[in-house]
Amino acid sequence: MLILTRKKDESIIINGNIEVRILEIEDGKVSIGIKAPKEVDIFRKEIYESIEEENMKAAKIESNIDEVGKLIRGK
What we know:
The chain is an alpha+beta fold.
């Protein structure tokens, strides 16, 4: 993990086309702004993990459905 120190209104550039800027620091909270191309998906980590978990569940259900179909068809 890369650790950087930034002050308000300072930013970092990722991959030449994503800018992460510190907008505000107040009461132990940091507001950040992210400027990125439209095709770049940006999620809060807890939302991303939730999406991944749901995708895994869906894949498992789909796999189970395929197995049931094979049993019904006798294959």
